[in-house]
């Protein structure tokens, strides 16, 4: 019994040793800034070190600010459209590159490559390609008689264009996540299903998706967080929130308030609301899916 107890102690110490760097990093770079943002939301800050406690004034202003609600609406549309598309495209590519065919390793690398390139560089390249009349895409479309499209200048097309570029940028990363989950499913299950006469659709529905549930949960959660809190660099380079604020996400609105208008207290209040939304949504998703275990344990 003493030997088991000693081994458990060593395992616990080892676990704490490996978890300590992440715990310290999350505390210093995530938890403390989040708490600081909540505190700063109750102050008026002019950017020159002057603080003035104003209570809930920033939050009252937020409720009455039409630009805040406009950005919240754009963010919601961006979230509802982009997350399912990332999920479907990532899973589809993973199913494709899971197959054994010539140069599959090269294809995997090519699909993942955009994710490791700087977002600013990617955005500048796409901005050049999408430029009205002189861009590569506009030139190609003009060859087949499609003229007058302004992908970044038309409020009806700008947000969809940003979504398409974001999918192109991130699909390789989520493809790798799904591929890891697919390769973790024992092949014996598929072999037994084939023997029983199950079709490819039935195998996907009855084997792949249930056993891929934890991966699905991880992808949905991380992509949701990435969509809501990320995208600032791409929006800044491609559209700067325009045209007519049609691509002004909340994260870009926070940037404007903090660094363009110098209203740091109000920006902190908006940021606090955004983080609160993420926490509530993440907790609800976790409870609804039981951490990715959609089916009963039995």
From TrEMBL:
Transmembrane annotation, as ranges: 16-45, 76-97, 109-129, 157-180, 211-228, 267-288
Keywords tagged on the record: Cell membrane, Membrane, Transmembrane, Transmembrane helix, Transport
Protein name per UniProt: Sugar ABC transporter permease
Domain of life: Bacteria
Record-stated family: Belongs to the binding-protein-dependent transport system permease family.
Record localization: Cell membrane
Chief location of this protein within or outside the cell: membrane
Pfam families the record matches: BPD_transp_1
Annotated SUPFAM superfamilies: MetI-like
InterPro entries (UniProt xref): ABC_transporter_permease (IPR051393), MetI-like (IPR000515), MetI-like_sf (IPR035906)
Membrane topology according to the record: Multi-pass membrane protein
GO annotation, biological process: transmembrane transport
Domain ABC transmembrane type-1 as annotated: residue spans: 72-285
């Amino acid at each position: 019994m003493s030997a088991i107890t000693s081994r458990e102690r060593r395992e616990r110490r080892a676990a704490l040793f490996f978890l300590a760097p992440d715990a310290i990093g999350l505390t210093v770079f995530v938890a403390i800034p989040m708490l600081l943002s909540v505190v700063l939301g109750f102050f008026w800050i002019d950017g020159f070190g002057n603080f003035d406690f104003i209570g809930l004034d920033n939050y009252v202003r937020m409720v009455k600010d039409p630009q805040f609600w406009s950005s919240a609406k754009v963010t919601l549309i961006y979230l509802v459209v982009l997350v399912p598309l990332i999920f479907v495209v990532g899973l589809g590519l993973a199913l494709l590159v899971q197959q054994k065919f010539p140069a599959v390793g090269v294809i995997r690398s090519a699909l993942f490559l955009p994710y490791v390139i700087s977002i600013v560089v990617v955005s500048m390249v796409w901005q050049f390609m999408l430029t009205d009349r002189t861009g590569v895409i506009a030139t190609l479309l003009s060859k087949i008689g499609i003229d007058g499209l302004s992908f970044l200048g038309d409020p009806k097309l700008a947000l969809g264009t940003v979504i398409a570029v974001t999918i192109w940028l991130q699909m390789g990363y989520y493809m790798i996540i799904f591929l890891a989950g697919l390769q973790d499913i024992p092949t014996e299950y598929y072999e037994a299903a084939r023997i029983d006469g199950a079709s490819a659709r039935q195998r996907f529905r009855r084997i792949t998706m249930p056993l891929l549930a934890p991966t699905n949960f991880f992808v949905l959660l991380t992509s949701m967080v990435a969509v809501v809190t990320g995208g600032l660099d791409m929006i800044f380079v491609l559209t700067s929130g325009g045209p007519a604020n049609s691509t002004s996400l909340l994260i870009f609105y926070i940037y404007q308030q903090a660094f363009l208008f110098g209203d740091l207290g109000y920006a902190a209040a908006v940021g606090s609301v955004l983080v609160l939304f993420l926490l509530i949504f993440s907790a609800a998703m976790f409870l609804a899916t039981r951490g990715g275990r959609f089916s009963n344990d039995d």
